[in-house]
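Subject — a protein and its fold

Tokens — whole-number codes for backbone shape
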Amino acid sequence: MTRAVSLVGAARGLALGALLPAVAGAQTPDAPGTATCAQVVQTALNASQAVGAARAGVPLAQAQLDAATAWETPELRVRDNLAAPGQEPRVGLRVPLPRWGVGDALRGAATAGVALSRAELTLLEAQVALTARLQVAAVRAARRDAALAARGAEIAQTAAADSARAESAGVANGVAETLNRLDTLTARAEADAAVVHLAAAEATLARYAGGLSVDAASPCVGPLPDAATPHTERAHAIAGVAQAERDEAERGLWPWPTFIELAWQRDETGGERNDRALAEVGVALSWPGGAPARAARAEAAQVTAQGEAEAQAAERALADARAALDAARAHLARLNSQAPELERAAALADAAERAGAPGSELRALRRKVLDYERARAAAMYAVEVAEAEVVAGGG
């Protein structure tokens, strides 16, 4: 398995693990105050073991680049004839030579490895941030749902009380009162369920927020990206590693000098003393056929095509996310444009209640207002989710 393939596999494993950041150590349940959405995201990033490992991989990749550009350590060599000690001593210095073409390929692979580590880190951070932002959006939605459910229970309770008074006065039958009581029980159950859901969402988010409550008004996304740049950079880096490995395999077939050794030798075996200065050069020879180079070329082409396909898929996914965001924003804008009508309906309900309107009509009107507010709350949640997914799609 080559470096390009192994890096891709490792990246996918990290991306999967990033969705479950280990944040238990960051919990401070008794801490006062509130946290902004940005603080929640940063806490999740700092606590994620996968992100920490990816961050450590960047300087490691840089160190590998530095190592690829460094010369190998020379060797000091001493030799003598054990059968006649001192008669043929030799001292030499062997210096490994960089194989210039192969060395360039290795440096290219290391450079692409640094870019790949950084791109993978960016994508990993985006996935963890997406999880945190979605949890913030879920809490905000749960808070709105709980408030609306409580209002629904209040409306039902008021209608039931009005129906009970009407029946006592002899102007309503028991069926209407029974229906109103059942509506009240249903509304209370919905309100209780909303409170439980909110508590669960708040408890989950507390792990991301370090135990702090989240400020419902804080913005949760920054500028939206125009392109899936980290995905493209990652694809180019993967292709760069594979192409550098191809170059390394191809240039390894060339007859490169691999070392030079300079030595001094004394020879006293014939009764005469002879000093010699010696030089030795080694040249690497390759087996004919070049099968490793052919395999490297094929793999580079395959990895490059795969990377380009993944980059195009990321761009399409980002375009789809932006389209979903535009649709969600348009839907919310339509609902917001109806706000004046909602205000008039709410005012009419208040006036009808003061005028003693029938409970069934009043309840129906307030229910319509409540249904609109629930639809608007759902649209707000859809926009927040879509925004978070667009930000994650752009890395």
